[in-house]
Amino acid sequence: MKVGLDVGGTKTDAVAVDEAGEIVGRVRLPTGWGPDAVAQTVLDAIAALGSDAGVDLAAMRSVGIGIPGQIVPGTARVTHAVNLGVEDFDLAAALTPALGVPVQVENDVKAAALGAYALHGGTGTVGYLNLGTGVAAGIVADGVVQRGARGTAGEVGHISVDPHGPVCRCGQRGCIEALAGGGSVAERWGRLGALPVRDVFDAADAGDPLARDLRAGIAVGAAAAVRILVLTADVDLVVLGGGVTALGDRLLGDIAAELDASAEASPFMRSLRLRERVELLPTGSPAAAFGAALIGAAPTYETRETVTHG
């Protein structure tokens, strides 16, 4: 049995995966704030797999964790996970004594990319585009997570596509994240609401000029990210995930229209059939936790090792 956890800023999703690769238990818990509380959330979630989901924890052989922030290569140290109140924390050192099994840690988007790849059959090349508070991507080719020379492979959110566009938190203008990131959209919308991006879509449907501009920017930014993933990594499929994708077909329709518009002007872009290479991760999919479970089960997790089978 392998256990995987997707530790998010508000919720932690945990799954237990059997030898056949089937999810046999799943729980969700609120995530605590700060290093000690994050570690306790992991322990509580694993305990809940046993008590609430009926998983035989005695059969647990590994734990994998997907978490925001940067992971120091070759370690389980998480740095700069600001949404969790974690600046520098070794999760394996904190958890292994209590769990008694190996603990591996990966960035949450890369874990989700691996999970999405495995859930789509585990073949070819898949790009996972996370449209959440920020925008980032993970690329998996033949079961291998692509990290790059310095771990920045997939950071498409900070590619500027409009030099006159809105200022991004990275200091550039017109970055994909500034256009399509939920945090940037909410800030520019400037109106209180539980789900600001949904409010923007609703207001755009009602004809609000600012909302229409913001909604169009989301489509431009997301479509640009799709084109970049295809043109640089030639991925077979771009899977869209993250909180913004809760908008479902409303979002996908806008992105498809933007991709179609660029294809109309270019025979080359038409030949790439971009619209056919994009799909939404199903709502509630455990891709990130599932990917984390696969990572945790690898004997020694490295980005050049195939970890999606067995």
From TrEMBL:
<keyword id="KW-0418">Kinase</keyword>
<dbReference type="InterPro" id="IPR043129">
    <property type="entry name" value="ATPase_NBD"/>
</dbReference>
<comment type="similarity">
    <text>Belongs to the ROK (NagC/XylR) family.</text>
</comment>
<keyword id="KW-0808">Transferase</keyword>
<dbReference type="GO" id="GO:0009384">
    <property type="term" value="F:N-acylmannosamine kinase activity"/>
</dbReference>
<dbReference type="InterPro" id="IPR000600">
    <property type="entry name" value="ROK"/>
</dbReference>
<protein>
    <submittedName>
        <fullName>N-acetylmannosamine kinase</fullName>
        <ecNumber>2.7.1.60</ecNumber>
    </submittedName>
</protein>
<dbReference type="Pfam" id="PF00480">
    <property type="entry name" value="ROK"/>
</dbReference>
